[in-house]
Amino acid sequence: MIEMHDVYKVYGNGVKALNGVNVKIDQSEFVYVVGPSGAGKSTFIKLMYRQEKPTHGVILINGVNIKRVRDWKIPYLRRNIGVVFQDYKLLPNMTAYENVAFAMEAVETPRRKIRRRVQEILELVGLYDRMNALPSQLSGGEQQRVSIARAMVNNPSFLIADEPTGNLDPENSWDIMYLLEEINTRGTTVVMATHNKEIVNTMRKRVIAVEQGVIVRDEQQGEYGYED
């Protein structure tokens, strides 16, 4: 599903964000990526959906070397990669329905398929009755649910979540985690960067710990391993 082979990332200012990373994530896994601030977690995540390119090394997504994918093909590559952000990144002047539909329109999905699929995915995340609401009319938890619906609407092989509970209170954080777990049980691979110690220690999934650009720990049913 996801493979990194001897991956390095050096930014233009000389900062070495990743330093020889090797990892394999299989289909249907649920993986937490943890580590202190500045450890390289965000770079690790961004490389997976081609927000950044590796300086050296190979990254394979479903067998495709994504470094070699031409820029104009990136939207089609991302049909198999859903991405959820801490700050939701919803379009403020579009309703929940329109925000989710936009992800299908971007890859030229026939209009007749869009309405059925968007309604289906909004029902999955518990927002069918709120589909006509603007982001400003939704709570933080509801906005994140729209973000997840948008990420999942094209039936991606895997979902990348970058601090998806970072702006949420504990109750909404757990609601989002139960939703991500449900998505995972349906077969979608989930890779989630997080600082939430309670969630990681309670749910006990695979944990990859990154420090100074290096994977220092990779454990099944792992723990967070850092102080808050």
From TrEMBL:
<keyword id="KW-0132">Cell division</keyword>
<keyword id="KW-0067">ATP-binding</keyword>
<protein>
    <recommendedName>
        <fullName>Cell division ATP-binding protein FtsE</fullName>
    </recommendedName>
</protein>
<comment type="subunit">
    <text>Homodimer. Forms a membrane-associated complex with FtsX.</text>
</comment>
<keyword id="KW-0472">Membrane</keyword>
<dbReference type="Pfam" id="PF00005">
    <property type="entry name" value="ABC_tran"/>
</dbReference>
<dbReference type="InterPro" id="IPR005286">
    <property type="entry name" value="Cell_div_FtsE"/>
</dbReference>
<dbReference type="InterPro" id="IPR003593">
    <property type="entry name" value="AAA+_ATPase"/>
</dbReference>
<dbReference type="GO" id="GO:0005886">
    <property type="term" value="C:plasma membrane"/>
</dbReference>
<keyword id="KW-1003">Cell membrane</keyword>
<dbReference type="GO" id="GO:0022857">
    <property type="term" value="F:transmembrane transporter activity"/>
</dbReference>
<comment type="function">
    <text>Part of the ABC transporter FtsEX involved in cellular division.</text>
</comment>
<dbReference type="GO" id="GO:0051301">
    <property type="term" value="P:cell division"/>
</dbReference>
<keyword id="KW-0813">Transport</keyword>
<dbReference type="InterPro" id="IPR003439">
    <property type="entry name" value="ABC_transporter-like_ATP-bd"/>
</dbReference>
<keyword id="KW-0131">Cell cycle</keyword>
<dbReference type="GO" id="GO:0016887">
    <property type="term" value="F:ATP hydrolysis activity"/>
</dbReference>
<keyword id="KW-0547">Nucleotide-binding</keyword>
<comment type="similarity">
    <text>Belongs to the ABC transporter superfamily.</text>
</comment>
<dbReference type="InterPro" id="IPR027417">
    <property type="entry name" value="P-loop_NTPase"/>
</dbReference>
<dbReference type="GO" id="GO:0005524">
    <property type="term" value="F:ATP binding"/>
</dbReference>
<feature type="domain" description="ABC transporter">
    <location>
        <begin position="2"/>
        <end position="227"/>
    </location>
</feature>
<dbReference type="InterPro" id="IPR017871">
    <property type="entry name" value="ABC_transporter-like_CS"/>
</dbReference>
<dbReference type="InterPro" id="IPR015854">
    <property type="entry name" value="ABC_transpr_LolD-like"/>
</dbReference>
